[in-house]
Each structure stands twice: as C-alpha cells, then as structure tokens.
Amino acid sequence: MNLQHILIDDNNPAHRELSIYRIGSINRIYLQDKTYKTYSTIKIDAHDYAAFFHYGITESLNTLPFLSESGNGLDSWDEAFLHNSSIVSMNKIISECRTTINPEKNDIILLGWQNQPIGIAYQRKIESKRFLDFLDTLEQFVSESAVRGYDLEFIL
Predict the structure, then answer these.
(1) pLDDT tens per residue, range 89-144
(2) Which helix (H) or strand (E) holds 125?
C-alpha cells in the first residue's frame, strides 16, 4: 500500500479545514445559572488538544464525575460539565499526569488516517515543553475556578 504522511501545520489553512483538526475550550460557568452565562474561557488550540489526549490526561480525568448528555464524560463529543466540588481533584490528576511528561522529548503522533481515495496518515508534532506551559495555565485557571465557586464546562 502506498501511504502518504501529512504533518499537520497550524499555519496551513487547508489543514485547519480537516475534520481531524480539533480545538476546544473550557468555560467557567455556574451549573445552577439559568442564563447559561460563561464567565471566563480558556481556549485549547489544536496542538494542546492533541497533546491532552496523547498524554492520557483526558482518560485520567474521566475518573471524575463529569455530567454529559451521552454519559461518556470527556469522550462524549458533546459538552461535559464538572461540578465545583470535583475541581480540586482535577488539578491533582493533572499534576500527577504532568510528572510522566518529559519536557525534553517531543513526539510525532498519529491523529488519524484514511484509506480512500488514497492512503493518508495525518500526524502532528507534540512539543512537550509547550504543552507543559499550557498545563501551567490550565492549572491556574482551574485553581481560580475552584476558589471562586465556578463549575467547568468542557467543549472538546
């Protein structure tokens, strides 16, 4: 089989149009708020989105009691909500996961593939130091959310 490898480039508009190119966000909300207001948001770019899954953080976080329409937590492809009472545990999980990430080792991961009309493997370079910087920002966002009594909404 003849297989073409494509390394995703965030600066290439054609790559950003691919369905494999995923971004997300985490919003500060109050689950009891009837107006469904977002009080603050942290964006997850395509690099950090892929790294979030690559390093197993999503899977580890799914041990928390997320609320989602499908009942599948962060793997639900819909919104997943985390009550404020579980936010401190979220940061503990992130802290544990980050200890497994070598800041000196970058990876190239497989995002997905297609067989037709030609074989293509879509790959992405993961820069571990860059992702650890994102985790610093995320942990601060989560800590501030816990102190202020916010719940979190994950759109992945």
Answers:
(1) 999 999 999 999 999 999 999 999 988 888 899 999 999 999 999 999 999 999 99
(2) strand 119-126
Asked if residues 48 and 134 have their Cβ atoms less than 8 Å apart, the reply is: yes
Q: How far is CA 41 from CA 11, 83, 129, 142, in A?
A: 23, 16, 22, 11
Q: Is the peptide bond before 117 cis (omega within 30 degrees of 0)?
A: yes
The pTM of the full predicted model, rounded to 2 decimals, is: 0.91
- CB-hemisphere CA count at 13 Å for 92? 6
CA distance 113 to 79: 26
- What are the pLDDT digits (tens) for 61-81? 999 999 988 887 887 567 899
Taken in order 132, 137, 142, 143, the sign of the CA dihedral is positive
Instruction: Give residue 55's domain range.
Output: 3-155
Please name the residue that has the structure tokens 């130091």.
129
Instruction: Give the CATH number for residue 50.
Output: 3.40.1760
Interatomic CA distance for residues 9 and 87, integer angstroms:
33
Structural domains of the chain, count: 1
Strands 3-7 and 24-29: unpaired
**Separation of alpha carbons 45 and 131, rounded Å:** 10
Q: Which amino acid is at 86?
A: S
